[in-house]
Amino acid sequence: MTEHAVPLATNQDLDPVRLRQAFGIFPSGVVAVAAQVDGVLAGLAASSFTSVSLDPPLVSFSIANTSKTWPGLRRATHLGITILADRHGGLARQLAGPPATRFDGVEVLIGPDGAVTLPDGLAQFDTTIYREVEAGDHTIVLLRLHAVQHADHSLPLVFHRSAFGLRA
Ligand SMILES: Cc1cc2nc3c(=O)[nH]c(=O)nc-3n(C[C@H](O)[C@H](O)[C@H](O)COP(=O)(O)O)c2cc1C
After folding, report:
1. What InterPro entries does the record point to (predicted)?
2. N or C: which end of the chain has fewer CB within 10 A?
């Protein structure tokens, strides 16, 4: 192993623009988080999704504290999570756009407890909120899984360097 006694550069690298670039080097998938709340479909796209625990079965995503959708969405009895496929770049943008049209033309499945999933996705999870953890300008939402379904074996949508698909 080669050791270099060079410290990592200073706080200048922690400004939000540079930090966003650095975080973006790490690729992630994209999910739709959605539910029916008071008879209305609500949801958003999230690239912060990650698996957390097998026992109990937990996953997580982080929601910006500025989200206008989350205060209503978090009231849902159950939340649906759908892992998007590589053909879903446009859909992901739509699910991050104006809330009133996020589900326009989107085929959805509504579970008995209000979890909303997209049958065209790669995997679907029926979840409830297990815990919400304050984390700076975001909240980490831990979700407990109640049901899982996955049948589609096509490629996942990848978000990398603020765009879809891997890039050098
Ligand atoms: C690919 C992609 C990934 C996103 N990931 C997240 C995320 O992990 N957390 C988050 O709070 N917002 C994320 N967003 C933004 C939300 O989808 C949404 O636009 C944002 O929450 C603002 O809408 P709202 O005020 O209705 O919540 C992402 C958007 C895109 C296009």
Report:
1. Flavin_Rdtase-like_dom, NADH-dep_flavin_reductase, Split_barrel_FMN-bd
2. N
Q: For residue 50, tell me if it sits in a domain.
A: yes
Question: Is the minimum distance from the CB of 84 to ligand 1 under 6 angstroms?
Answer: no
Asked if the structure places residue 17 within a domain, the reply is no
21 part of a folded domain: no
126-132: average pLDDT:
98
Asked if pLDDT for residue 13 goes beyond 80, the answer is: no
Which is the closest atom of ligand 1 to the Cα of 159? Answer: 1
Report whether pLDDT(48) > 80. yes
- Number of folded domains that form the chain: 1
Which residue range(s) make up the domain with 99? 29-157
Phi–psi pair at 131, nearest 5 degrees: -165, 150
Give the atom of ligand 1 at the shortest distance from the alpha carbon of 46.
5
- CATH code: domain of residue 68: 2.30.110.10
- CA 48 to ligand 1: nearest atom: 8
Q: How many CA atoms lie within 13 A of 86 on its CB side?
A: 8
**pLDDT level of residue 153 (50, 70, 90 thresholds):** confident
Query: Taking the model in full, what pTM does it have?
Result: 0.95
Cα dihedral 117, 131, 89, 67, rounded to 10, equals 110
